[in-house]
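F.,

This is the one I mentioned.
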């Protein structure tokens, strides 16, 4: 992979809890770019959880290797369409 890409990714997701980071990961998921999400998770040595509700709202949580404490998906509508970890 291109080192510039990793530098750009690190800058984008410096604060994983920020709205821009969540939006970035959500957009990757919406495009079905699961491989890039995997690379991002691996590069950052962090686990990611992506929940998609029945209204196509995306909820993103980050954790440590092997453990992601989920934030309550406030406003999510069941049934959930997808949950990727």
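My design for it:
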């Amino acid at each position: 992979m291109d080192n510039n890409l990793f530098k750009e990714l690190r800058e984008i997701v410096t604060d994983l809890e920020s709205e821009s980071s969540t939006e970035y990961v959500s957009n990757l998921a919406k495009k079905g770019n699961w491989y890039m999400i995997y690379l991002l998770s691996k590069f950052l040595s962090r686990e990611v959880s992506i929940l998609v509700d029945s209204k196509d709202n995306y909820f993103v949580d980050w954790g440590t290797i092997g453990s992601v404490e989920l934030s309550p998906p406030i406003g999510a509508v069941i049934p959930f369409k997808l949950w990727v970890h």
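Strands lie at 47-52, 58-63, 82-84.

Talk soon.
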